[in-house]
Amino acid sequence: MSIRFRINRPPQVADHNLNVWFDQVTDAINQLPNFSMSSTTNGPNSQVTGDSGTILIDVGSSATTFWAKLSGTTTSGWTPFYL
Fold first, then answer.
1. Which pLDDT value is given to residue 2?
2. Is the pTM of the predicted complex or chain greater than 0.90?
3. Tens of pLDDT along 12-55?
4. Residue 32: half-sphere exposure toward Cβ, Cα within 13 Å
5. What does the alpha-carbon distance between residue 65 and residue 53 come to, in Å, rounded to a whole number?
6. Euclidean distance between CA atoms 62 and 48, whole angstroms
7. Within a 13 Å sphere around the CA of 36, how many CA atoms are in the beta-carbon half?
8. 50 burial class (0-12, 13-18, 19+ CB within 10 angstroms)?
9. In Å, how far are 11, 18, 34, 77, 83 from 45, measured between CA atoms?
């Protein structure tokens, strides 16, 4: 399951600098990529569906923890990030 955070802009307040800061925080949160969490033994290819641009945290894989869906069909195209 992919999760994507989206928040609305907060109501305007009298302080212009605070409004600018609220807008920047809102924009930063809304630009975060989709992310998913999964538990696999051999990584997500052929097992986990996702859209291009999704980040996956694999809590069951012994070799790789983070994956990115860069291309491919619904269950292929996952690329590992080695940290």
1. 54
2. no
3. 889 999 999 999 998 888 888 777 888 888 888 888 888 888 88
4. 16
5. 16
6. 17
7. 22
8. buried
9. 43, 44, 17, 7, 19
